Fold this sequence. Notes:
Elements: E1 8-12, H1 23-32, E2 39-42, H2 49-62, E3 68-71, H3 76-79, H4 82-89, E4 93-96, H5 101-108, H6 112-122, E5 126-130, H7 132-135, E6 140-145, E7 156-160, E8 168-171, H8 180-189, E9 194-198, E10 202-207, E11 211-216, E12 219-224, E13 229-230, E14 243-244, E15 247-252, E16 256-257, H9 267-276
Parallel strand pairs: 1-5, 2-3, 2-4, 4-5, 8-9
Antiparallel strand pairs: 1-10, 6-7, 9-12, 10-11, 11-16, 12-15, 13-14
Function: Exopeptidase that catalyzes the hydrolytic cleavage of multi-L-arginyl-poly-L-aspartic acid (cyanophycin; a water-insoluble reserve polymer) into aspartate-arginine dipeptides.
Organism: Massilia atriviolacea
GO molecular function: carboxypeptidase activity; peptidyl-dipeptidase activity; serine-type peptidase activity
Amino acid sequence: MSAPARGSLLVIGGSEDREDDMQILERFVQLCGGADRRIVVLTTASRVPEKMWAIYDAAFGGMGVARRSEVRVTSRLEANDASLADDVAQADGIFITGGDQKRLLALIGGTLLDQALHAALARGACIAGTSAGASAMSAHMLADGKAELHPEKGAVSLGAGLGFMQRVAIDQHFSQRQRLARLLTVVAQNPYLLGVGIDEDTALLIEAGGGIEILGAGAVTMIDGRHMVSNVADIRQRAVPEMVDVRLHLLPAGSRYGAQGDPATPAALADFLNIVTDIA
């Protein structure tokens, strides 16, 4: 197979199938260029990286990927190793596992390894992230907090992410952990950001300038608050804000839309997708 013409992002909501049909992982291998390409698994977000690597080593091995390896980074000194960074930059696919997105960014944010991820994407690699690895993919990372029944001012905090996308905040395990109120909280406090919630065993495929596709068993929820009228600036902490004219898009698995003027894409969704597909 030939290498992909441009980089792509596969943003996975966690708990993807790793043993049976493995639809999402199979698609990742295809996006990397096929089973003969080189794939690295970044386990830095996990506090039990050996367990995480064993899971994906078995999954990718079962798909015939011979050139697979783990990148296990436990310090910023390791993340600034030039030879490691050069090796990652040349990978055809990079898979960022789950764990703790704050741990991931604390260890690799701003390092040579961080730069290598961007270099790999720029030269055409596919970068996938699941669970915490998914939340870390945007410049604005949902770092902490919860809002259970309603959005609540101050209940959720953001941090700096890896920056493959701008103006997007990603949440994962979305329907299963009932995180709509949490993502609405993010949008209420940051209407400039677009909220993207991804269900378990579900992935949002983003092709640079080429549109999106929803894979797997669930759905992707997209929240657009740019037209919103809200009193969030004037209410006390932990109060429920008014949120008028918030737009919500629900895209089940199998949905596919183009961006950048595709006439088949509904006008209400087109501008949203143009932002989401603007891969850095």
